[in-house]
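Structure ticket #2291
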Amino acid sequence: MKTRNYYGYTIVEACFFMQGVAIGALTTYGVFFKYLQAEFGWSRAFISGASSVVLVVMGIFGVLLGRLNDSLGPRRILLVSGLVLGGGYLLMSHLHSGWQLYVFYGVLVGIGLSSHDIVTLSTVARWFRKRRGMMTGIVKAGTGTGQFLIPLIASALILAYGWRTTYLVIGAVILVVYIIASRLVKRSPDVMGLLPDGGVEPEEGDAQATGLFLGQALRTPQLWLCSLAYPCVTFSSMTVLVHIVPYGTDMGMSATKAAAVLSTIGAVSVAGRITMGTIGDRIGSRKSFLLCFVFLISALVWIQFASAGWMLFVFAVVYGFAHGGFYTVLSPTVAELFGLRAHGAIFGFVYFWGTLGGALGPVVAGGIFDALQSYDMAFALLLGLGVLSLLLMLRVRPVKEASQSAAIA
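Resolution: structure written out below.
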C-alpha cells in the first residue's frame, strides 16, 4: 500500500526545475561561443578553457558537497549554490577581459553547479528504492528539457537583445528557480516519518544507513573502474556540448540551425533519461549503463562521416539518447553497487573524476581545431575513448561480488 500524496514526488519536481535551469544554462555556452570569439578575438582553445575550469571546480566542490549532504541535508546547500550560480551568469553580462571569463564563468558557475547532480540525485536516491531509476530519470529529464529549450531561447534573445542581456536574463531565472525550489527539498523520508517510495510498512533494504563508507568503497576495484570509465564518457559529452554548434556553423549551417542541433540533443536526451532509468529499475542500473554504450558508440561512428547538416541532426538523435541515459543511471549504479550509507560522498568521488574528463574534452578538441582547422581528429578520439570506457565498465562485477570484496577488505 502506498500513500497517495507522497512528498518524494515534490522532491522530484523541485529537483527537475533546478536541473533544467542549471544544465540548460550550461549548454548555452556553445551558443555564446562565436559571439565571444568575435568580440574579444580569443582562440577556441582559450574560450573552451573556461568551460573546462567549470568542470574541474564543479568536481572539486562536488566531493565536499556530497559529504556535507550526507550529514547536513540538501536545502541550505542548494540555496547557496543557486545564489552563486545565478550570480556568475549575472556577472557574465559585464564581461570585458579574459580573467573575468575564467572567474565569472569558470569559478563561480563551477561552484554553483557543483550541487546540481550530486545533491539532487543523492537526495532522490534516498526517497526512492523500487522506482529509483525512474525517478532519477524524471529529475534528469529536467536537464534534457533545459538543454532543449534554453539554447533556443538564448539564441533568439542574443539576436534580439545581444549576448550581454541574454546572460542577465539567464542569471535572473536561475536565482528565482533555486530560491523557490531549494526550500522544498528535504534530506530523506525518515525526517518526515515516511518510508522510501511512499510505503507504509518497512521493506527489506529500506534502511537509509546500509552500504559502504567511502573508505571501504575506495578499497574495491569497482569504484576505481567506475572512476576511470566515467571520465571517458564526460570527455565526449562536454566536447560535443561545447563544440557541436561551432562545428555546425563551420559546416555552413546558420547559427540558429546549429543551435537547434544542440537543442535536439537535449530533447532526445529526455527520452533517454526516462527510458534508461526505467529499464535500470528492471534489469539493474549497471546493465542499463552498459546499454547506453550501444547508442554512444553508434553515434560517434556516424559523426566520423557527417558532411551535411541533416547528418548532424541524425547524430543528435542517437547521441542524445545515450547522453541522457548515462547521466541518469550513474547515481542509481553507485547506489546499487555501494548502498546509501555514504551515497553522496561516493557519488561525489566518481563524479569528480568525471568532471576531469569533461574539463579536458573541450580544451583538447579546441586545441586540435586550432592546430588542424578541423574537428576530424577530435571526433576520432571521442570514439576511441567510448570504446575504452565500455571495456572498463564490462569489468565491473555484480553487486553481490562487490559487497563481498568490500567485506573481506
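Closing remark: Residues 401-409 have pLDDT under 50 and may be disordered.
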